[in-house]
Amino acid sequence: MTSDNPVVTYEVVDRVAWLTINRPDARNALSKDVRDGLWAGARRFVDDESAAVLVLTGAGEKAFCAGGDLKEMAETSLEIPPPDFLPQFGRNVEVPKPTIAAVNGVAFAGGFLLAQQCDLVVAADTARFAVSEVKVGRGSPWAAPLSWLVPPRVAMEILLTGDPLDAERAREVGLVNHVVPGAQLRGFTQQLAERIAANAPLSVAAGKRTAYLSAHCGLDDAYDRAEEIWAPVYRSRDAQEGPAAFREKRAPVWKGR
Length: 257
What we know:
Blueprint: E1 8-13, E2 16-21, H1 32-47, E3 53-58, E4 63-65, H2 70-76, E5 99-103, E6 106-108, H3 110-117, E7 120-124, E8 128-130, H4 146-149, H5 152-161, E9 165-166, H6 167-172, E10 178-180, H7 185-197, H8 201-211, H9 219-234, H10 237-247
Parallel strand pairs: 2-3, 3-5, 4-6, 5-7, 6-8, 7-10
Antiparallel strand pairs: 1-2, 8-9
Helix pairs in contact: 8-9
């Protein structure tokens, strides 16, 4: 199925939801229509029982998202963006299921934000990443998690210079999981998402929550919270189904409970 919003489309393929910014002539810049479409798509995915993984991408080959629509910002004299200006997964909208950014071109400013907030990033070999706000006098408070994702000195250089990183450098510093030829980006990302979608959903959701614990609390507290997160998984029917399927040499049938 596909959404009716022409600048942001939503399509589910084999339990993988593709949320696509479809404004390639404007380098997929974040106009109000795009932002509204991203909010609608994020909420739709959270409620969509047919979709286990979200892939966020941009149309065309040049840009994943070049950031805010500067013409629109100038016209509206935008100062401090409101908290709900753009969906930031895990900050202003809870997305318990996994998310992947399929970065097909430049991911600058707000585009960098969108990729940063996804759980995994797959990049085309032509992709580039930059927090370019310092070059246009804007702000990037949303980059606060960056020094948790990449080494602090790398984060410092990204924020202070505004210079772009190419795809390989982004992978080297840990911002990107995989780099693939542009023609293979969709297929590779779809396969990665399907491997995640095939796993036990309660375990996947708990795994995602566990991975972020160290960003929010110390190690002892992280262990305690992880025990709480995983306790209902251990007690679930799926926790019995996995070993039973292994014993019976068949594929497990997950119920998510």
